Amino acid sequence: MGVFMKIIVQTALLLAAAWTIIPTAAARTCSTHVKKRGYDRKQIALTFDDGPDPVYTPLLLETLQKYNVQATFFIVGEKAERHPDLIRRIQKEGHDIGIHNDRHISNWLLSPSAMNHQLVRAAERVSAITGERVTLYRPPWGHFNPVTLSKAKRFETIMWTSIPGDWKKNMTTRRLADKLRNARSNGAIITLHDSGNTLGAYKMAPRMMIESLHLFLSDEDSRQYEFVTVTNLFNKQRA
Question: How far is CA 173 from CA 66, 72, 188, 204, 215, in A?
Fold first, then answer.
């Protein structure tokens, strides 16, 4: 490879990093506009991405109801429009509803205008069903580009303290339950998934995740925590 070609390749890699890895690392570690942990009190926020799913979301809601857990769902906009009754059920049962882009697409692949469209369209679809303004956002895969935070400034951007890999095919029920126990801490935000149809996910993974939740939520130590929505996790009046 000639010197000129090396310069072109290096420049291209630098530009790619400037649009993908660098803003993601900065947002996750330094940004005051991204929330990653609640207050130091015995509360945990369970969050569920990629839904709703007509098979697994109802099973998950039954589990959450059984253990008196309030959670937060980051919804894919186009899925919300296909399953409005599930969105209404999530809302009726007292859970938070945020957005996860209109399609499950990485922000690394979006131009500024396309990024804005994903946010606006997802929020419109969900609001049309719930009658409420969407206030929470989580980028798919936790990917930020340089304009993500500015385009999402109307929302609270929520990341996590733990993402235990429930979507993986080689994950087991007991191993995931152990990971959930290890993630248990004051103000923790734990990310799980109620759909297995996302690129890279094992289709049956949500069933295993729900089984793990039963083990985790029935654990004596878990009973020492209050499981709350993200909104309540960051409610200063409850501190």
Answer: 19, 22, 21, 12, 9
From the number of C-beta atoms within 10 Å of its C-beta (0-12, 13-18, 19+), residue 197 rates as middle
Q: In 64-179, which ranges are E strands? A: 72-75, 96-99, 136-137, 156-158
Model confidence at 186, pLDDT cuts 50, 70, 90, reads very high
Q: Spell out the residues 6+ positions from residue 91 whose beta carbon is closer than 8 angstroms to its own.
A: 97, 130, 132
The amino acid at residue 218 is: S
Catalytic residue among 49, 50, 53, 102: 49
pTM, two decimals, is: 0.95
Count CB neighbours of 92 within 10 A: 10
DSSP 80-97: HHH-HHHHHHHHHTT-EE
95 is catalytic: no
**83 classed as catalytic:** no
Name the active-site residue from 83, 96, 193, 194. 193
Encode pLDDT of 21-71 as tens digits: 999 999 999 899 999 999 999 999 999 999 999 999 999 999 999 999 999
Place of tokens 């793990």: 212
Q: Does domain 3-238 have CATH number 3.20.20.370?
A: yes
Residue extents of the structural domains in the chain:
3-238
112 upstream amide cis, omega within 30 of 0: no
